[in-house]
Amino acid sequence: MSKEILNFTRYSLKITQNMDIEALNKRFENASVTEVLTHFLSEYKGEIGLSSSLSYEDQVLTHLICQIDKTAKIFTLDTGRFFPETYTLIDKTNLRYGIKLQVYFPDYQNVQKMVNEHGINLFYDSIENRHLCCQIRKIEPLKRALHGLKVWITGLRRSQSVTRKDMQLVEYDADDNIIKLNPLINWSEEDVIRFVKANNVPYNKLHDKGFPSIGCQPCTRAVEPGEDIRSGRWWWENPEHRECGLHRR
Ligand code: SF4
């Protein structure tokens, strides 16, 4: 195929994807989270998965997904630097819903090389080192976890941070060539917590100790009441940099 035809095909494909995404956002504009999940879980059965960080949001989605289809893929990326409370929650979640969260680990050789070259806590030294750590411990395992999927469900919400304010319910992630579904996009923090409490959804006990957003132990700290909920993540960096790269925009 000539270069021109190949470029035209790629361009046409991108346009079609954009149009489909627009149509899907329009169609589900006023739909409930359950309606959205029911549609996508059935339409993309076997090709859809939730990436769970065990956050409040991901626990809400796990709860709702398990009511619709317990065989749907739900996975977590164990960076090896989680809080003990997060590991406890993995067990609790499996027990509560009768499922087994699929756990993806980083490549040990990459971790070994990184740690031996840059130190165990390299992320405090520079943004480049922090990105390297997130790349090796999160992004590479994510690529493996997403392999073969057409839809990636996330617990992202617009009001979580400045980096997420323009997000849509359905998006096309060109980096991973996948449809990204953000069913809780319009929920507030209060909506999420209310749902968790009302439905007795298992949650990370660190939330009760001032941790609104929980990631790896060395990169997460408690925040004061009223502070931005993401301000405890990579707190030594500027707010615009406070993403791990899983949700590049
Ligand atoms: S959040 Fe911190 S410890 Fe976890 S992968 Fe990123 S830099 Fe590494």
What does this structure look like?
This protein is α/β, with parallel strands linked by helices and 249 residues long. It is 42% helix and 9% strand. The chain has a single domain (32-241), classed as HUPs (Rossmann fold). Strands 3-2-1-4-6-5 form a 6-stranded mixed β-sheet, sandwiched between helices. Strand 5 and strand 6 (178-181) form a beta hairpin. Helix 5 packs antiparallel against helix 6 (127-146). The chain is globular and about 50 Å long. Bound molecules: iron/sulfur cluster. Iron/sulfur cluster (SF4) is lined by residues 79, 81, 123, 130, 133-134, 137-138, 215-216, 218-219, 244.
Question: Mind sketching the topology for me?
Answer:
Elements: H1 3-27, H2 33-43, E1 48-51, H3 56-68, E2 73-77, H4 84-97, E3 102-104, H5 108-118, H6 127-146, E4 151-153, E5 170-173, E6 178-181, H7 189-198
Parallel strand pairs: 1-2, 1-4, 2-3, 4-6
Antiparallel strand pairs: 5-6
Bound molecules: iron/sulfur cluster.
Iron/sulfur cluster is lined by residues 79, 81, 123, 130, 133-134, 137-138, 215-216, 218-219, 244.
